[in-house]
Structures are given as structure tokens and as C-alpha cells.
Amino acid sequence: MREGEQDGHLYLVVTGDLRVTGQVEIDDTRKMHPGICDLGPGDIFGELCLFDEQPRSATVEGLNPGQLIEIDADRLNQWMDRHPALGLKTLREFIRRLRKTNQRVESLLAWGLRAHGIEKHI
Hints:
With 122 residues, the chain is of the alpha+beta class. The protein is built from 2 helices and 8 strands, in the order ββββββββαα. It is 34% helix and 26% strand. Helix 1 (73-82) packs across helix 2 (84-115). The relative contact order is 0.19.
């Protein structure tokens, strides 16, 4: 899965390990692709497609051979509508994961600020 692609699926990792990376523009000529997190069996990715039809916000690549289950977002949304209690539980898990991602981003930002001595200017 590549950042910027349009895809209406989310994925469950059955076996294998994956790395999620994003694209960061350092300046007009330089870009880097830092690792955001690693995923393994039981993890889900691509769930933002449940909420909007925007392009992928990250790239996910396999670190070794593995198996994924592809889940159609429209069908999952229909299932959650038919089973609201389980749908709510599923949404709560997605929210927990998004909070964890926010914490990672904040940690990376804090590290970058410290690494460049920015805190002395605040």
C-alpha cells in the first residue's frame, strides 16, 4: 500500500511483519520516509478509509513474507450498521490506535525539537 493511493480497503495482519512509513518534506529538494510504526499479527491498518474517501496517508511495506486479510470498507460499514454494539467496540479500538499514533507523533516532534535545541527558544 502506497501513500497517496486510493483504496477502499482495510487490512488485518494474519502473519508477517510490516512497517508503516510516511513522507516528510525536509525542504524543496529533500524528502525522507521515516518509520511510523511496525505491525504484526493481529494488527489492522488502512482503517481511515472507513471515515472518508481520501488517499492513503502512509505507505505500508512487508518486512518479511506474510498473509493479510483484505476487508472492504463499505461492507464493514454496513456490518457495523447492522451490529451497532460490535460496531461501537470496533470504532473504540480504532480510536485507541489513533490516540497511540498521536502519541508517537508528539514524541517524534519533541525529539526533533530537543535535537535542534529549539526548547531554549520557547
